[in-house]
Amino acid sequence: MNSEFTPYYAVIFTSVQTETTAGYAEMAEQMETLAKQQKGFIGIDSARNAVGITVSYWKNLEVIQQWKQHTDHLIAQQKGIKNWYAHYNVKICKVEREYSFVKK
Amino acid sequence: MNSEFTPYYAVIFTSVQTETTAGYAEMAEQMETLAKQQKGFIGIDSARNAVGITVSYWKNLEVIQQWKQHTDHLIAQQKGIKNWYAHYNVKICKVEREYSFVKK
Fold first, then answer.
1. C-beta of residue A17 within 8 angstroms of C-beta of residue A84
2. How far apart are CA A28 and CA A21, in angstroms?
3. Residue B4 contacts by C-beta under 8 Å, 6 or more apart in sequence?
4. Average pLDDT estimate for A7-17
5. What gap in Å lies between CA B8 and CA B47, rounded to an integer?
6. B51 within 8 A of B14, measured Cβ to Cβ
7. How much is the pLDDT for A42?
8. Across residues B26-37, what is the average pLDDT?
9. What is the mean pLDDT of residues B20-41?
10. Is there a contact between A47 and B47 if contact means CB atoms under 8 Å apart?
C-alpha cells in the first residue's frame, strides 16, 4: 500500500479467542488466501498475541460488502461465532492519508 | 470502542523491526502510557509477530496531530527511525462504521 491508492478502505478486525482453537489456523489461512483473490482487494496485515488484529485493505465499500457476503466467508464467520471467538470487533474505515519509512 | 463514538479516527501503525531491540519494549510501554493520557484518546490495540500492528483510536484529526508532535513522542519517533524500525507505515483513517460480537 502507498498513498497512490488513497482514499481506500481498511477493515480492522480485532478478536479474542476462546480456548477452542481446533481448525482455526487452517480456516484463517484459507480465508486469507480467498480474500486475496477477491476483486478490489489491496492488502492485508495480521498479528496475534493476547488480542488478534487483522487489517485488510479494499478499494471501496462495495467490495468489502461483497467479501463479507461471500458464501465461504459466511461459513467461516458462523464457525468463528460458534467455536473460536470470545469477542470480536469490526471497524470499517476510510484511509485518508498515509506515510512510510524504509531504512536505507 | 463502540458505535456511539463513530465517526472517530484510527491510526494504523504497522512496522517491521531491525535486529536492534534494546530499549524498544520499555519505550513502547512508555509511549502507550503517554498516549492514554492525551486529550481525545479513545483506545489502543496492539499485537506483534513478524509484523507489528498498533491501532490507536482518537476523537478527531487535531488530537492525532497533537500526539504526533508531542515532545516525548517525537524523541521516541527519532529513536525508532535510528534504531528499531526497518520499515513502518502509518495510515490515518476515519472509522465510519463498526460492529461487535460477544459470546454469551
1. yes
2. 11
3. none
4. 97
5. 21
6. yes
7. 96
8. 96
9. 95
10. yes
Mutate to test the interface with A, among B85, B93, B99 (most CBs of A within 10 A): B93
Strand partners, B43: B57
Picking from A32, A39, A13, A18, the residue whose alpha carbon sits closest to that of residue A73 is A32
Please list every residue in chain B whose beta carbon sits closer than 8 Å to the beta carbon of residue A45.
Answer: 12, 14, 51, 53
For the stretch A34-59, pLDDT in tens is: 999 999 999 999 999 999 999 999 99
**Plot region of B23 (φ>0 → left; ψ -120 to 50 → alpha; else → beta):** left
For B58-86, the three-class secondary structure string (H helix, E strand, C coil) is ECCHHHHHHHHCCHHHHHHHHHHHHHHEE
Radius of gyration of chain A (CA): 15
Asked whether the predicted pLDDT for residue B3 surpasses 60, the reply is no
Question: What ipTM, to 2 d.p.?
Answer: 0.93
- Does residue B86 sit at the A interface (CB-CB below 8 Å)? yes
Contact (Cβ atoms closer than 8 angstroms) between residue B71 and residue A77: no
Q: Are B61 and B10 in contact (CB under 8 A)?
A: no
Taking Cα atoms as reference points, which of A89, A95, A14 lies closest to residue B10?
Answer: A95
List of chain A residues whose C-beta atoms are within 8 Å of the C-beta of residue B51: 45-47
Find where cell 513522542 sits: B73
Beta-bridge mates of residue A52: A15, A48
